[in-house]
Each structure stands twice: as structure tokens, then as C-alpha cells.
Amino acid sequence: MIFANLFRRRGRTILTVLGISIGVAAIVALGAVAQGLEAGLTAMTRSSEADLVLSQAGALSSIISSVDESVGDELRTWPEVSDVAGLLFGNVLLGSGGRNFFVLGHEPESFAVIHFRIIEGQDLASALDARGTQRVRGTPLILGLRAAESLDKAVGDTVRLGGAIFRVVGIYETGDGLEDAAAVVSLHDAQALTLQSHRVSMFYVKLRDPADEDRLRTKVERRYPDLSLVTTSGFVDQEQMLGILDAMAMAVAGLAVVIGGIVMANTLFMSVFERTREIGVLRSLGWRQRRVLLLILGESLVLSLLGGLLGIGLGVLGVLALSRSSGMLSIFGSQFTPGLFVRALVTVVALGVVGGIYPAWWASRLLPVEALRYEGGSEARGSRIHFGGMTVRNLWRQRTRTTLTTLAIGVSIAAVVALGALTDGMVDAMTQMWRASQTDLLAIQADVDADVSAIDQRTGARIAARSDVQAISGLIWTAISTEDVPMLMVFGYHPRAYTIGHFIIVEGEPLTARHQAIVGRQAAEQMGVHVGDTIRLLKSSFRVVGIYETGVGYEDTGVVISLREAQSLTGKHHQVMYYQIKLHDPGQAEEVLAAIEADHPGIDVSLMSDWAESMSDFRVMQEMIGQISFLAVSIGALGMLNAMVMSVMERTREIGALRALGWRKRHVLALIVQESLILGAVGGVIGMILGWGVGQLMLLLPGMLGALVPSYSPQLLIRAMLVALLAGVLGGLYPAWRATRMRPVEALRYE
Q: Number of structural domains, the chain?
């Protein structure tokens, strides 16, 4: 009976299943990316033939870990160590403004490259002579099989990575999706490419005797307290990036359950309403309340499972599309596991229970006598609304359906508003921060994300020598995790830098020497530190000499240390991430910008007022807003389509009467489209209110510290309303067209 009931209204069932599948597809896609990264890192470390892995403690991921190369030289002299191999991750841009691409820097003859099986061409060691002189034209590179196929490259071709030209000397395969989608260059070339001289991301360590592991770990903890030594099997457990991706997947799962549950409840209420007399007959024939409840819940679970299965298929297709995109997530690879699919199905089962429990309970409470007298459709509820005309009265007749439809749209719009407000807040905070620096231009390394920029200080010295430049300030900017603050911003400035002047000292004194720190007012309150206290940042201790305020959340929730010590913490010796440039004449900013870029092709210069929107974090969040907007339009339109089709069907005789009284097709079409637009608009307003509430709740999360305040700009609210109206239009077009196709005579005979 369950399947017979569901496919009695095939159109409604299909639309509901599609709405559920979209959320499930997002869960599967994000989960596959997280598992792909985990599987790739696990396979990479285990296949290296190493026993242990040494990386920077507290790093968000080994991909951004930084360890001095001299550590490996010392480890090789220890009696417990048999061999050490360094590895450097590089996230570079492929081509000019192309997609993100992973480069792995290995020592060509180390034990860690043995598992790179060359299937065409030669390996790196064969392409270099004993002194490192290249035997091939161009810098040698071996390319993973997946990367070679996606880039359509073969042995002998050239590849442009981050502004440098490499020649493919070999194609390799490891069986690990992360490595096979990347390229391998010599460690020295990777360091030059990423401007990380004498740095590695991590070391692979081989033991002489496995029994020496505990003794070696004790020695490392004593000698290098800022480093973490773990087994190859336990290495992936310290990857915080995996936790972030899992959190994203869980957030999407929660959104899918809420929206899908609302759509499910809407569909089941429609089904129950139109089958009220049928349920009354069943109750009069002896069906108990529990049996009716189980029938409706069974329909809900079947709908959920069908949507889940379709969503899994769409998720797989989405991951395949993502692997060919230029986004940051595409470089992590992907992996599908039974556990991922089980999690997706558990989510849809929860969705089925959430969406079906109330309609099932409502149906089970129907009294047989009242149910048998039910006439259905619009006659069930008289309208007491006397304003807004026929459109509003039609919507008010089925208040439950109208409420659930607007809620489904509202929750989707809330996600758009909340994320958009955070993105705008980030841009506002960044803009305030750069404006507070009172500089005109900002320079970063060309062809890389701003987060990994590195500029040689000699370049800064040459820019400072220009006659049109008044002052130049180098900046290192990073984030670390502490016990009190999950993400503490750390700024590195020279104590006499021009831009450090906007850090207004409200207690204590300014930064003057090494091993000193000034702390933002909000960070000091969160950490419970005062002038004279000592704070520890990674491996170094700093004495707090002052408390500052700038009025900018990003800065007031951070710590400022000397530039040299920030360089030591981040491994960017004699480098800065950005240069803030103050001009004698700000009116010449455009001309000076062009001149600096012409003289220094390795850097990009932008106006300070424009730079925030070019940040990679901003672009990533913009992409997420676009994807969630698409999700909102899709689910909202499907829910709207479902509701409006049902509304048209139950009013078939009424529409026939209107047509018989002289209503033209365009009048009927306008009526249905107006109803869907009103539903979309009301859903948009609800979404804005919910989005504001979500944004305010996010301010209460630990570690936010007021660093990021949501910004609800008129443009954001207009965009959210347009998304809601678009969902209404798309959802109402087909039902409106269907209503216009009704012939009056046939419509009047509709039962």
C-alpha cells in the first residue's frame, strides 16, 4: 500500500525525492573530499617506508607545516635514526591565473620516492647528474597519471607552475589519489618555487630499531618542543583540516535535514489531506491509530530512501565534476567508502522521521466520522481573510501547506544571508584594517594565494628606495591555536615600521625589542593576560609589554611580535608576506602601481582599497555563497513546484469555473504566478530574519572574540530576496502553465 499511495501522485513524489537528493548529494560530495584527503595523506605516509613523521606542532594541516631543513641534518646523526627524508608541499597556481595544483618536493634519491612507479619516461634522479646539473632542457618534473590525463600532458611537454616553467620527464603512478593528481619536483626546486629556502613541510624518519621509538620521541620533545613526532599510521589523526571538512559536511547534513524535513512534511500533509476520507474508511474498518501512523511514517521513510539513493548518485557525479574544477577542494582528491554512504542514508532516515512524524501523528488522530465527512480541497477551510484579493485568500485556505512551503524557502535563504553576512563582515574588517594602516598600496607574491605569499626583503628595500615611496612596511600574518583561543591572529612588524603606529597602546608601552609582544584588548581579555605576563606562541615565549586597540576586530583579537620572530615562527626567513606601501602623493597610486609591477614581475600590487576582495578566503566564501544560493533556489523551487501543482489540482473545478466565466489563460497564469511569488517573498523575509539570528548566534562561538562581525548590507538582503523570488518564479511556472491548459468542460467534471 505504501508504494501504491506514493505513486498515486507520481509528480509530487518525484519532486519530493529530487528535493531530498540535492541535500544528500552535497553531504556525499563534501564527505568524499574529506575522506579523499585523509586517505591520500594516510597512503602517502604509509607508502613512504618511514616509521615516523615529524612536522610542526599545532599546524592546521601538514600541507602548511614548516620545519627548518637543519632539523633533518641533526636527526641523521642520532643513533636511533636510520635515515631521514624531507618533503615540501606546494600549493601553486597552474598556468597564468589557473587552478590550484599540488607540487611535492622530494629529495630525488631518498627512500620516500621509491613508491613513485614510473610508467613512462624517467625519474628525477635519472634526469639530474650527481651535482644536480640538469640533463634535460627546463627544470625537470614528474607528473602523476591523474594529473597528466587531466592536463593532457605527456613526457617532453612543459608545464607552467607559479610563474616557472617545468618540463615533464616522466609519468608516475602510486595508487594514491592525492599523489597521482600532483607533480613531483626536487626538494631544492620546490623550495625555490614556493620561496621557502631551507624549509620542509615534514620529515619522514626511519628507525634503526622500532624499539627506539619512545626514546626518540622523548628526545625530540625535549630538543624541539614546537615539533610533533607521530607514527605514519597516527599521522592523519592530527590533521585539523579534516575536522574542518567534516564540520562542513555535518553543517550541510543539518541543513539538508531541516529543509528536507520541511519539504517532506509538506508533501505528506498534502497526501494526508487528499486521503482524509480514505483514512476514515480504514479507521472505520478497524485500523488502529498505530497502524495509520506506521503507514504514513513508512511512506516518509520510503521517500527519504529514494531521495538518498538518488542523492548518492548525484553526489558521485558532483565529485567527478569537482575533480575537474579549479577550486581549492579539487586538489585534495576524493574517496567513496561504505561509511560515507551509510552516513548519508542515516541522514535521510532521520529526515524521514523528522518530516513524517507530525503528519503521521495528525493522520492517526483523525476520528472516523469526521474523516468520512471531509470533502477535501479548498472546501476544507473557509477563508476569513478579506484583504489581498483572491491570491492571498487562495494561499490562506491551506495554511499548513503555505507555512511549510515558506519555511522551506526561508531556511534556505537564511543560509545565504548568514554566510553572506559573514563574508561581507570579513571584507569590511579587512578593509578597515588596511585603511587603518594609512597606506596606499599593498604588494603580494605573484601567482600564489595571498595566504602563502612570500616576498624577499631585498625586493622591499628596492621599492623603499623609490623617490615616490614615503614608507614601506613588511608584514607577516598567521594564525595559531592556543588553549584559550582556538585561532589567535599573530602579526609580525618591525618595531619601527610605519604601519605599526596605528596600534594604539592603552596600557604599558610599545614593542621595542625581541621576545616582546603587544596584545589586542579583546585577545588579552579572552586569554586573561596583563602587562608583564608571559605568553607562549608555538616554541617561543614572549613578555607582554603592552595592550593595544585599533578599533578593528581582526587586529584587536591578535598579538603583535617583531617581524624577525614572526619570520622564525612561519619559516619565512628574510621574507615577508605583504608589503604595505605609503606614497608621497596618493593621487599617483595607479602610476606607481604599474611601475612597481613592471620593475618587479614577481609581485602583484593592488590599491589598498581593492585588495580585500582578492583574498583567497573571500573567494572561497563567495563560491560557497554561490553554491548555497543554487541549493536554495533548487530546493525552494522544487518545494514551490510541489505545493503549487497540488494547489492547482485541488482547485481544478474552481479554475474550470473561472474559465467558463470568461477568465482568459493569461489571467489564470498570472494568478498562479502571483501566488508563488508571494510565497517566495514571504519565505525571503523569513529567511532574512532567520539569517540574522544565525549570524548573531555565531558571534557567541568560542574564539570569535568579535573578530568577525556579520554585515547585513542592503545588497546582501536584495540578493537574498531575488534568490527567494527566483525560487518562486521557477516553482510556479509549470503549475501556472498547466492551469492555463485546462479546458473548462473537463475541469468542471474533475472529481
A: 4
